[in-house]
């Protein structure tokens, strides 16, 4: 059964390694044979593969799109997925799904599972940012309390009561 794709102006798609961009208001494509296809929303550019999960995805994406270099990209993929699993044990189930698909030679399905890995990482980073914001808020409150205490102490140092003056005058 052929794959039907409807695209809007400016949409990009990669078919067997070739990047295509729609230049008209609407385009409909029908793919009649086996092809490696990724739509714009599924593509990560190399310069955007900067996190552990996006590196996993990019290596797998490259293996899928460029079969002539698949061995090299799959080797990179295994390195990156091992590193990710070691650094992020909470993603073990997702990593297991990605591994299973790749081992079965189902690279597109592996990419779909790797998207979940990227989303998992985004969730962790979001949680981390929230925790940092809470810590910063606590630090700000603590700093304000320290400043207030220091100001109170400074006021105490500037106070000259009768007792001190009497002692000085007596000497």
Question: Mind explaining what this structure looks like?
Answer:
About 60% of the residues lie in helices and about 15% in strands. The chain has five helices and five strands, in the order βββββααααα. It has a three-stranded antiparallel beta sheet with strand order 3-2-5, with no helix packed on it. Strands 1-4 form a two-stranded antiparallel ribbon.
Question: How would the blueprint of this fold be written?
Answer:
Layout: E1 3-8, E2 12-15, E3 18-21, E4 26-31, E5 37-39, H1 52-65, H2 70-87, H3 92-103, H4 107-158, H5 162-170
Antiparallel strand pairs: 1-4, 2-3, 2-5
Helix pairs in contact: 1-2, 1-4, 3-4
Label this structure with key terms.
single chain; 171 residues; alpha+beta; 3-stranded antiparallel β-sheet; two-stranded antiparallel sheet; 61% helix; elongated
């Amino acid at each position: 059964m052929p794959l039907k794709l409807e695209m809007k102006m400016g949409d990009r798609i990669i078919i067997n390694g070739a990047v295509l961009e729609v230049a008209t208001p609407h385009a409909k494509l029908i793919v009649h044979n086996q092809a490696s296809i990724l739509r714009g929303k599924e593509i990560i550019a190399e310069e955007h593969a900067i996190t552990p999960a996006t590196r996993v995805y990019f290596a797998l994406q490259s293996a899928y799109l460029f079969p002539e270099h698949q061995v090299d990209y799959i080797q990179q993929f295994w390195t990156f997925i091992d590193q990710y699993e070691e650094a992020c044990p909470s993603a073990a189930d997702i990593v297991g799904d990605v591994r299973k698909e790749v081992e079965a030679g189902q690279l597109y399905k592996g990419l779909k599972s790797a998207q979940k890995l990227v989303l998992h990482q985004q969730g962790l980073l979001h949680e981390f940012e929230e925790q940092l914001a809470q810590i910063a808020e606590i630090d700000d409150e603590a700093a304000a309390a320290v400043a207030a205490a220091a100001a109170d102490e400074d006021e105490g140092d500037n106070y000259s009561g009768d007792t001190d003056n009497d002692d000085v005058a007596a000497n």
